[in-house]
Amino acid sequence: METEIETELKRSVLDTLKNCQQRQDSVLVWSLEVGKCLASRAISLPSPELGQLLVSHLCFQNNHPSLWKFLELSLSSSSPSSLLSPLHVLSLLTSRIIINRRSQPLAYRLYLELLSRYALDFRTPNALKILNSIDAALNLSTTYGFELREIGHAMVLVFFTIVIRLIDATMEDWGLRLTLSDAQLCGVGIGGGGGGVVDMEVDVPYNTTVVGNHEHHERVRRKNTFIGMEVLAKLTESKRALALLHLVHLNMPEKFKGLLLRLQFLEANKLVSPDLKSANQLLARLSSNIQGALGFQYRLNNRNLTGTLLGIGSHRPLCNLASQPSQSSCWVLLDIFMENSIDGRQLPVASSILILSETINTLRVFNRASWQDTFLALWLSALRLERDPLEGPIPHLEARLCVLFSVVPLAIANIIEDEARSSSSSSSLNMETVKGGDNFSRKRGLISSLQVLENYSGLLCPPSSVLGAANIAAAKAASFISSSRNATDSISANGSGDSSLNAGGNLRHLIVEACLARNLIDTSAYFWPGYVSASLVSQSDILPVQKSPWSTFMEGAPLNGPLVNLLSITPATSLAEIEKVYHIAISGSAEERSSAAKILCGASLISGWNIQEHVVRFVIKLLSPPIPTASTETRGHLVDHMPALSSTLVGASSVESVHILSLYGAIPEVAAALMPLCERFGSLMPTSINISSSDDEPTTYMIFSAAFLFLLRLWKFYRPPLEMAVSGGENMVELSLEYLLLLRSNFNSAAPDQTSNQQSGKPVYVDDYPKLRDWCSQNNSCLASTLSGLSNGNPVHQVANKILSMIYCKMNKSGPSVVGNPSTSSNSNSTSSAGEETNQRPLYPAWEVLEAIPFVLEAILTACAYGRLSSRDLTTGLRDLVDFLPASVAAIVSYFSAEVTRGIWKPVPMNGTDWPSPAASLPSVESEMRQILTAVGVDVPFSATGSAMMLPLPMAALVSLTITFKVQKSLQHIHAVVGPALENCASACPWPSVPIIGSLWAQKVRRWHEFIVVTCCRAVFRQNKVAVTQLLRSCFTSFLGSLQVSNSWLTKESNINGLLGSTISSRGPGPTIAPGLLYLRSCRSIQSIHYLNELIVRLVVDYSHESATRWASKESLRLKSSQASLSLAIAKAREVATLGASLLCITGGLQLAQELYRETVPTCLLSSRDEKCEVSTVARIMEGYTLAYMLVITGGIIWGVEDNPPSWSITKSRRARIVGTHMDFLARVMEDNITLGCHPTTWKAYVSCFLGLVVSGAPGWIQEMKVETLKKLATGLVGWHECEIALSLLERGGVACMGSVAELLGVIK
Hints:
Layout: H1 4-23, H2 27-40, H3 48-58, H4 65-75, H5 86-97, H6 105-118, H7 128-138, H8 140-144, H9 151-173, H10 180-183, H11 211-235, H12 239-251, H13 253-268, H14 274-278, H15 280-294, H16 305-311, H17 332-341, H18 352-367, H19 371-383, H20 397-424, H21 431-452, H22 467-485, E1 495-497, H23 507-517, H24 534-538, E2 545-547, H25 549-554, H26 561-569, H27 575-587, H28 590-600, H29 603-607, H30 612-622, H31 637-640, H32 642-652, H33 655-663, H34 667-683, H35 700-712, H36 721-726, H37 737-750, H38 770-784, H39 795-811, H40 834-840, H41 846-865, H42 871-884, H43 888-902, E3 907-909, H44 922-935, E4 950-952, H45 953-962, H46 972-987, H47 993-1004, H48 1009-1019, H49 1025-1040, H50 1056-1060, H51 1075-1082, H52 1091-1111, H53 1117-1120, H54 1123-1166, H55 1177-1199, H56 1212-1230, H57 1240-1257, H58 1267-1279, H59 1283-1291, H60 1298-1307
Antiparallel strand pairs: 1-2, 3-4
């Protein structure tokens, strides 16, 4: 119902128009008269009432040319006063004219003309009446699913709706019709409902009585169809139109998909319809424009330095550096990740494959690199690992080869598969070409990188242990080429080459075989120029072929001794071979099970690179044998599998095997598999027969000890919970058993198809295993406080006395029982034979023995402290205890570690009489430590020569016990538990405890001397902040060069070898180690890491200042004038930031990254600094840029740059909180709510570059930010004339920010 005022306005305006038309006034007079009419009624301009009145009057009873001219003048910006809103009028006309275009072809033609002129005219106030009228006319809220609250939203949606409706009208005029289901993908049709192209019966037919009028209308109607396409092609060529379409593509992808489907439909039918053939050129223009909207980007203003910083890439193609010894340093993160992944002192709980895949994506984005250079950098970083490390109880070459031949190819496979899945889910026009083309470019980049790898011959020399495998790979390629040329069968699948043959094989041949095994490339790689020598191909017919033992096994040969040994030292080559072995290990005889388990945990696990991921899966399944259907007891079946379990535990618990399992992210699954074994075998009552066995028959104690010590290696059981919570590391909570189980449950819920066995899909909790839970509780209590006394008759008291009796009996001397009554140890006087000793051993389940051991240790340690027990007997008793139950070493380590930290025991002299003496090697160890530390720029005081060599009693007892263990493979599981605990315990003792302990071990195992010296050096950094600061500064200097060398630093090639070293130790007068490598091996033991953020940021700022100062110095004007020199300076700044971010993430992971966002960088910007000399404007800009780059790439490393964080990282909501807190801080400062301490130039550069880098590198973060924060940031950027960054920021903010983008587009050019 119209109101009286509206009726009066309508009558007055129509009378005015009628009078002007009768007087034949010019349309300018019309405009003035109507303006007076509106002004007399105090109606604001532009008037929505006038727009509705004119459109309803014009359509279609008064379709007069003069009225159209008046309408056009009212929309024109040259009009004295803009009476109408173009957006409003076009919305009204669109809803009326398109649907009636057949009956009103002339009106449709004039509408198209107005559309071509004013469709992108955004001169519309944010008036509620206009907004509601537009929404009602086009039904926008219903169609797009949200309420219009800003005129900017209407600008975007009206334009997109017009494009869709014009395309639908054109298709219908040409006799083409989309199915309704397809059109509903967009939900925008001619009728404005939810349907797409609708039936046009509502279009009233025009008058056909006059033949000439009919023919004229037909010509106009046919021409209108082509004009509509021309208008669309012209409109979509505009950058403003591309920006609007890109906005819809980003924030309403399903709607944009409907547009692409229409274009795809037209493209598919262009050969069917004759009209489409004649409009082919227009269709091509339109399709090209729409496709351009997919990748539309705002061009940065290169006239200011900020735009130049964000516009210049940092990456120099690696393929152009093939003749240089080092790779481009912007990939240093890959090298640091590789080195950190093979650190034997830590077991990563997340899959290195997944982490590496995410790291590759992150670096490629920020380095703006091609896939060829990305993959080449990855291969070069992995090849740097292939050198023999220091000899010691750490992973050696096998784990490094696993990274090169398994982890890296699997990471690349993930990248290619992810893109393939993404492209298969896209069904839009040319999206397959875009995505699929990128997928093809990834494979092509991989192939190119492998081909270019030939130029790096210095890195391709195979270690002696894999030379035979490399030769076999080369011979296989030569045989394939020869067979292909001769059209005969290729190399026999039942044979393998002769490993002694010199076929010129190198690591590249093995890399290619690893990629072939995972279908990343095909056998055309064998034909690459220079891949194999022509002479080898010509001789391939006479190459000796040896029959593989696996071929013999697959032919049905029984698993006898010689074959088992051969299969154990020869890696399998196919999944079928591994599956057959596994089935024997599960369902064969007892002897076959043991042999099959030994085979699986042998060379196939260690060096079966092409199928290693499958072997890992089967090994884990062996630890959890399937429960028979007839079994009534939950874990009773485990006893039947004792031989296979024993072989599996022995093979899988070696240093190399455990680390390989960790590289595949299998640690949580292994922990869950070991817990039932511990619970079951620790609860069994042993007999006098099976406590100890002279042959290889497994016993309950042996299996329990192997499983229990294996489990304890996966978390730091010897450290108190509080210390675990505050310590550094990639993830603080990864040290707890509960966290490992949580990770395992999360993984299985996310990927149920990848579970290891039928029980693995169920969540596992520590409470499900009461014996293990009770021991963990007791262990934590022991670490936290001293033991409470036990009363006589307590079951634990009785077990402890039995153990004491056994120990004193072995000492062949009497001694009081200090747990209870002396009479309880009366039997300890007797001298017993070996058989008698066996009978005197206590027959208790292992859990009960472990529960009593702390009280036994307290008794004998107290006795030794008071002189009632000699140090030699103490050591002998401890060793007897370990021989009795190897798992007791865990309780010994835990108890002694706790007692050392309490500081209540007096030190004892390590004089060689009472306790072993380190005097023979201590001077050498300390001298070499000093040499290593001095070489990396660390100056710390050492103890004076001749000072007393003393250790706390528990520490002396522990180290004396450990040096009694033989260094052999069968005891690796004990050394792996004792070693880290001993190092941690020694670091808590007063100096020089570490060199003393290191010297004792160096005397025992001389070939470990260099490893021990380096390990002792690591202890220096545990609590010494000065030493850590010096080492970090040396890391920057070794990588970037010294700040004091003024003439070479800017042009110096950043040196990864300087940072991490080309070798770990030189065989000179003493060991050497690169500063970066020493830092990587030491940073996890730094007790407090919070100060490292500020330290790293300060170093990054210093080097960024120096980079800018030298670029802008007067001494290098010629250098300064070159664009290449600016690119070099920016590249240096990025390398500085990347190094800082890499070291920070490796040191503290999420903990330090979160502090960097929330505290460190804001504090740096808010604090004023005393500057000793004048800092140039360029230096301040470069400081802001480097800080921003470091912050963004740190976030990319920790939580990824994609829309969703990786599964191993934090949740999306937590990422939003961390980044959102920093964004809120920036917004508050830009609103002048916070006073800055840094220079305004630094602040402006930091904010602009940070937001620009987030937009270009991590746009997925922006969607998680608050809309108000984004609008505030955009407003501040516009005030700085950084409109392009502001627009890019807002367009990624979701539907709520679309209106702001459109309004900003209407303001700026």
